[in-house]
Amino acid sequence: MTTAPHPLAPIESALDRFREAHFWIHTLEQYYHFADPFRWHLNAFLKSIKEVPPLIQMGLQNRPGFSAWFRVERERLSADPLMRFLSEQRDFVVHRGTLVPNSHGSIGITEGRGFKLGLTFPVHPLEDSDAAMRRYLRHVVEYRDFLEILLPDDDSLPCIERVWRMPPFDEELVDLAAQAWLRTGEMVNAVVAWMSEMPQELSLDCRHSGQQVQFKTFDRTRLNAELRAMRRSKQTKRKAAKNDQ
After folding, report:
1. What is the pLDDT at residue 239?
2. Is 71 exposed, middle or buried (CB count within 10 Å of its CB: 0-12, 13-18, 19+)?
3. In what order do the strands lie in the sheet with 117-120?
4. Closest Cα partner for 8 from 59, 48, 70?
5. Res 92: pLDDT
6. CA Rg value for the chain
7. Is the peptide bond before 168 cis (omega within 30 degrees of 0)?
8. Biggest alpha carbon distance in the chain?
9. pLDDT, averaged across the chain
10. Residue ranges of the chain with pLDDT lower than 50?
11. Other Cβ atoms within 10 Å of 134 Cβ, number
12. Cα separations (Å) of 92 from 29, 52, 196?
């Protein structure tokens, strides 16, 4: 007995790529504070989201009337400023070089909702948030803990807040990726409806909050232990330098 093919089989590759793009949004959240993995997963998202329309075209190009109808849908999506921009970034990665988004950071303490105390602190786009915190510790070794984030406090945790952006857009980068996924999803659903099938529900309720993603907290006890190790290392180097004189 031959099993009838699934009605959406012709665009299954496109649907798979669309689901993959959803997956990359969550890995962007997961690696938000790790510069290289964040950029690499961004590249993967840009690749997958851009490949959805051509895979749809390939799967349905022989259906009567589809190519003319889909040309309008595809041009509408391509004309969207965000989709056009992300497509250009994907082409840049493929043909020209490394895509490095902008990174903005702050350091301070949090009680689980925003900053209780914070100060703008430069975080280089190629630097992990852990490395940024270590830079602050080195500053404390040389000067002092002017933010007092290392003082005992059971109600707060030291933290780095990090935000990725890609000018000319002001929105946070993962939010932009989510917008691109939803707009692509609207086109996918239009295609599914054209095939006389039931469109899927488009939802990103599974995303984590900005507090969960953009704030990286640190154990104060471990930071102080690392600070003491840095001070011991500095003292050892000073003694060695004196002995060499």
Report:
1. 77
2. exposed
3. 117-120, 102-110, 157-165, 215-217
4. 59
5. 87
6. 24
7. yes
8. 91
9. 92
10. 1
11. 16
12. 23, 18, 37
